[in-house]
Design goal:
There is one protein chain. By secondary structure, the chain is of the alpha+beta class. The chain has two domains: 41 residues, no CATH class; 148 residues, Calycin beta-barrel core domain (Lipocalin), CATH 2.40.128.20. Helix content is 20%, strand content 55%. Strands 1-2-3-4-5-6-7-8-9-10 form a ten-stranded antiparallel beta barrel. The radius of gyration is 21 Å and the shape is globular. The relative contact order is 0.12.
Length: 196
């Protein structure tokens, strides 16, 4: 209990330490500390966050799973995308079927003002690991291009993948997932989102 109180006290000191320069500045005191100014800038939503806010809403999803030499396995689902923490992050909750089985997943995405990259995480009902993504926006093709990393259950090692998200319009986007198989990038999944 004492340890918990110490953590709480330390957290409060941190909050007060951050808040004090802001309050002082509002009263006409000297300029904000450079470290605090950098933190405020890093935590302020910008144009990229506004662009991602277009995805907030309810979606119908058509899924296709692909494997070399086999016909695609098609399925359906639905997704709800919500805004978190004043538009700094976006959360997707997905429910549907995948490979003929019930499937649920949840992703968090955003834009990191420090790295200047779009970032995300994904967890679901068919794994126990967390997939990580980092990517950029290509305005010419209206496409997000992500690199993905996750723990491969076959090898026990980190595996790399790629995801592209083509923004057709504010009501439609298509996600494609690519894995490296025998030295070649192969599309393994396609998700088409249509706003309800």
């Amino acid at each position: 209990m004492r340890f918990t109180n110490m953590i709480l006290a330390a957290a409060m000191c941190g909050v007060l330490g951050i808040a004090a320069p802001v309050v002082a500045q509002e009263k006409g005191a000297p300029a904000m500390d450079p470290a605090m100014e950098a933190m405020m800038k890093a935590g302020t939503p910008g144009a990229e966050h506004k662009m991602m806010a277009d995805w907030v809403g309810n979606w119908s999803v058509k899924t296709k799973m692909m494997a070399p030499g086999a016909p695609p396995m098609e399925g359906t689902g639905s997704a709800v995308i919500t805004s978190l923490f004043g538009g700094r992050y976006f959360q997707e909750s997905f429910k549907g079927d995948m490979m003929g089985m019930p499937f649920e997943g949840m992703g968090t995405s955003g834009f990191d003002n420090v790295s200047k990259k779009f970032v995300g995480t994904w967890v679901d009902s068919m794994s126990t690991g967390i997939a990580m993504t980092e990517g950029t926006w290509d305005a010419a093709s209206s496409t997000f291009k992500y690199d993905m990393s996750y723990n491969d259950p076959m090898t026990g090692k980190v595996k790399r993948g790629k995801i592209t998200v083509k923004v057709v319009d504010k009501n439609t986007h298509v996600s494609e997932f690519w894995d490296e198989i025998e030295g070649k990038w192969v599309k393994t999944m396609e998700l088409t989102y249509t706003r309800k």
